[in-house]
Amino acid sequence: MKKIIFLLVIIASGFGCKKENSYNFSSSLVGKWSWFISCGGVAGCWTPVSTRTTTNLVFTSDSIYNFYQNDTLKGSSRFSTYKLISVDGKDTSNVIKLGSVSEMYSIYHDTFMLSSLEFLNAGSSYKRIK
After folding, report:
1. Domain count within the chain
2. What values do phi and psi take at 89, rounded to 5?
3. pLDDT (tens digit, 9 = 90+) per residue, 79-124?
4. How far apart are CA 42 and CA 39, in angstroms?
5. Close Cβ partners of 62 (under 8 Å, ≥ 6 residues apart)
6. In this structure, what CATH number is given to the domain that contains residue 44?
7. How far is the C-alpha of 18 from the C-alpha of 3, rounded, in Å?
8. String of b and e for 83-105 (b: at least 16 CB within 10 Å)?
9. Whole domain around residue 97: which residue ranges?
10. 56 falls in which pLDDT band (50, 70, 90)?
11. 62: phi then psi, degrees, rounded to nearest 5
């Protein structure tokens, strides 16, 4: 768990002032993802066991995002992805816009991590459902 928090801190703090550079779509997002942990700075961490809640995200190839909680569709919207580029042009960060909310994201093997652009050390992790 400390590794996840450390990774989220590195991602969030590694990028200063940035400009947007749009691109259309990240095919690596397509599929179903199951939430397994969220951490929120001083709020600590919570899991499906501690909240007694299951959460799944489904991203489709036609840029639709569906949010399920306890197997019930709770929300759906279009999504888009883009890169944030640091002022010096040396660093980039992937960003996903889910409706009106934008968050940084990364995918490593079968783990999808979202981290807040507004709150340091706040983020959630999901495992790909095969």
Report:
1. 1
2. 80, 5
3. 999 988 878 777 888 999 988 889 999 999 999 999 987 776 789 9
4. 9
5. none
6. 2.40.128
7. 26
8. ebbeeeeeeebbbbbbeeebbbb
9. 2-129
10. very high
11. -100, 25
